[in-house]
Amino acid sequence: MDGEIKLRGRLKGSQRMRMMRLLDMPYKPSELAEEIGFERRQIYRAYIPSGCPHKRDEQRHIWINGKEFREWYEETYPRGSLGKDEAFCLTCKKAVKLLNPIRNQKGQLQYWISACPKCGRKLARIITKVNQEK
């Protein structure tokens, strides 16, 4: 992964799925927040300052088109993927290379343990889940 990942305003998986149900119609911020499942203030604090498409009516109320919001969100917050030798550091907020990873197994789960080369934080990267058939 190259570059910084935008974290402020990023939705969880279940919220992304609910966002797919948005219609091509105007929503009030409170309606949009309730439909997707987050707080209304997230629209004012994260999305509008980041360039979320919206319109104001004569009374200065904000209206956000559901389809335009979904398209803007997908463009602004793309789904990232890590390389085979990378892990995401929660301190540095970016993907980093695994240096001298140690392979561990806990139950059926196999994973690598390494340290972030920049901050030293302990990183874990899941390799595979072993299926044991009986």
Structure write-up:
The structure is a single chain. With 134 residues, the protein is of the alpha+beta class. 25% of the residues lie in helices and 29% in strands. The chain has 4 helices and 8 strands. It has helices at residues 13-19, 29-36, 41-47, 66-76; strands spanning 26-27, 55-56, 62-65, 86-89, 94-97, 99-106, 109-115, 122-129. The strands form 3 sheets. Strands 1-3-2 form a 3-stranded antiparallel β-sheet. Strand 6 and strand 7 form a beta hairpin. It is elongated.
Rg for CA atoms: 20 Å
Query: Separation of termini?
Result: 39 Å
Please give the largest β-sheet: 3 strands, antiparallel
Principal-axis shape: elongated
Query: What structural class is derived from the secondary structure elements?
Result: alpha+beta
Strand tally is 8
Q: Treating each run of at least 4 consecutive H or I residues as one helix, how many helices?
A: 4
Helix content: 10-25%
Order of helices and strands: HEHHEEHEEEEE
Q: What is the strand arrangement across the widest sheet? A: 1-3-2
Poorly predicted sequence stretches spanning 5 or more consecutive residues: none
Give the oligomer, counting copies of the same chain as homo and different chains as hetero: single chain
pLDDT averaged residue by residue: 89
